[in-house]
Amino acid sequence: MTQDEIDKVATFAASRGKLMSLAYRMLGSRAEAEDVVQDAWLKWHLADASTVLTPAAWLTTLTVRLAIDRLRHLRMERQSRAAGWLPEPWLDGIAPSAEEEALRASAMSYGLLLLLERLTPDERAAFVLHEAFDCDYADIAQTIGKSVANCRQIVHRAKTRLQRAGDGRRAGGKPEPTVDPSAHARVVERLRAAIEAQDRAQLLCLFAEDAVVLGDAEEVDAGAAIASARWVDQVSSSVHTAEAVTINGRAGVALLSPEGEITGLLDVVGVRDGRIVRLGVVSSAGSLRAVNAAWGARAVMRLLRRIGRAEPVMC
Fold first, then answer.
1. Are residues 123 and 248 in the same domain?
2. Within a domain: residue 150?
């Protein structure tokens, strides 16, 4: 490997965490984000680095444009599905990777990722760059190929659309009140404990009368009280165990099969007066593939085998 190639690898490695986080925010899918970042690497590998004045900005611009193109394609695909589609949750690790550190630094809640699905690709790119990565309008304009004035308008329009969408989540058009993280965590732990105990009565008590359950699989319904009751009946009879996890920087619940594979991820998106008003349920095999590859039982067993083969450490 030549020195230029080594420098290229080092430059890309230094930006990869940010690029991965940016692509994930744009696409709502870790697998799709990895594909976009891989495409960015291939284009960077083939580029003449001597003509690039600021590699980090070049890579950011390339990744955003690749993500915009990919998002336009995915939107048609997602809208054609019989079942719903939800963003793939990002589980935080015990020893965070560069991607996880970048994700935390540009944190957006899972609930906000749901709302971002309402934006156009250009609106989503401008909003994510401005709000999550603190980019100024001049940088955003250069990245997405719009004028500064246009980008300012795009971000303003995106904020207005998100505010209206968020306000509409509660009957009467009133926004859900902001919930303290510790209060949110207590509700999530009560949910986990009730699922673990298969306590149907306690599960039903956790949901508000106007609760909505959003799912990415056909068996999960969206609706009010009857939908949450139907979901409660399903989960209380089919889940082997429930574990506390951190999803996009916030407390959540992982549902596990008897074999230790993750069969569902629950994110309590909305809480009011200590009860759940909006729950996101990710349970499709496709959405959980990346999660199980990193955290499922088979992934844990592979890690244990690697540890078992390692040389003992002398203390």
1. no
2. yes
C-beta neighbour count of 205 within 10 angstroms: 13
Q: Which of 86, 137, 153, 88 is nearest to 115 (CA)?
A: 86
Mean pLDDT of 210-223: 64
Spatial CA neighbour of 123 closest among 162, 88, 77, 78: 162
This prediction has a pTM of: 0.67
Domain span at 289: 181-301
Residue 280's DSSP bridge partners are: 214, 267
Q: What's the confidence (pLDDT) of residue 169?
A: 46
3-state DSSP assignment of residue 180: coil
Exposed, middle or buried by CB within 10 Å (0-12, 13-18, 19+), for 55?
middle
Domain count within the chain? 2
Quick check: is 160 in a domain?
A: yes
Which residue type sits at 22? L
| Distance (Å) of CA 164 to CA 111, 198, 238, 243, 257 | 14, 37, 37, 34, 38
Q: Which of 122-136, 169-183, 211-225 has the highest mean pLDDT?
A: 122-136
Residues whose CB is less than 8 angstroms from the CB of residue 196 and which lie 6 or more positions away in sequence, other chains included: 241, 242
CATH assignment of the domain containing 26: 1.20.140.160
Question: What pLDDT was estimated at residue 35?
Answer: 94
Residues 187, 282, single domain; the answer is: yes
| Residue 173 covered by a domain | no
Confidence of residue 217 (pLDDT cuts 50, 70, 90): low
